[in-house]
Amino acid sequence: MQPPDLRSVTLARITPMPPMPQQGDPILLPPADLTDATRRAEALIPTPYGDFRMIAYAGEAEDYTPHLALVHPDMDPKGEVIVRLHSECITGDLFGSKRCDCGEQLDRALRMVSAGKGVVIYLRQEGRGIGIINKLKAYQLQDQGLDTIQANLHLGLEIDARHYGVAQGILQDLGINRIQLLTNNPLKVDSFGDGPIEVVRRLPIIVSPGEANRSYLRTKQLDMGHWLK
Ligand SMILES: Nc1nc2c(ncn2[C@@H]2O[C@H](COP(=O)(O)OP(=O)(O)OP(=O)(O)O)[C@@H](O)[C@H]2O)c(=O)[nH]1
């Protein structure tokens, strides 16, 4: 086997920044929304929030980014189950980025769902469905003055590319028919429409804005219609 070409590794390291994303750049999108809610594996996961049964859902050929359900061990599917649909945000959920409210929302959701014996469904919809590469490009554009909507549009992408059909499939698989949905996003509530799962109540999940996410949250409130105070 040929050894790696270390010169190109060094070069890549010292290249300061990639060029600004431009309209017309090739668009790399993550795999299309998985609509196949097939239960592939599960195990008990003890967390600081309490124990959850973690269940991975994916289609047959889609092992790499399964959606995850974290189910309280005493969840009663016959009740009005507290449910959080949380879209993946590596920057916020994993690394605590302050550019968005995602990490704090996930923390709060896990507390509420643990207390209320409910379910968190962790949907692999990084960057509102555009993937981490495009989200980082969008952040670069936001640092130049565009807002979160304008940045996606500038890249030729949808403002919000998410679909929630698979979440309904997962809830059905868990035997759940009636939910209290933790969200500020009207599109998440609307996505249940006249489907098999009834949203009996919406529960707000609002975190206090900070310096780094104030304008992001303002755009979500004023231009994306999120129910934020
Ligand atoms: N494209 C893009 N995505 C972002 C940006 N900031 C955060 N996100 C993504 O937005 C999504 C937010 O997910 P959620 O918190 O589940 O959903 P929400 O639409 O904020 O609605 P809530 O249920 O009220 O929290 C995640 O996938 C983040 O990765 C951004 O500036 N641009």
UniProtKB/TrEMBL annotation:
UniProt keyword Metal-binding present: yes
InterPro entries: GTP_cyclohydro_II, RibA, RibA-like_sf
Record's keyword annotation contains Membrane: no
Keywords for the protein's UniProt record, in alphabetical order: GTP-binding, Hydrolase, Metal-binding, Nucleotide-binding, Riboflavin biosynthesis, Zinc
Residues binding GTP, per UniProt: R84, L85, H86, S87, E88, Q105, E126, G127, R128, T148, T183, K188
Pathway: Cofactor biosynthesis; riboflavin biosynthesis; 5-amino-6-(D-ribitylamino)uracil from GTP: step 1/4
Gene Ontology MF term list: 3,4-dihydroxy-2-butanone-4-phosphate synthase activity; GTP binding; GTP cyclohydrolase II activity; zinc ion binding
EC id: 3.5.4.25
Annotated Gene Ontology cellular component terms: cytosol
Protein family: Belongs to the GTP cyclohydrolase II family. In the N-terminal section; belongs to the DHBP synthase family.
Name used for this protein in its record: GTP cyclohydrolase-2
Organism of derivation: Neolewinella litorea
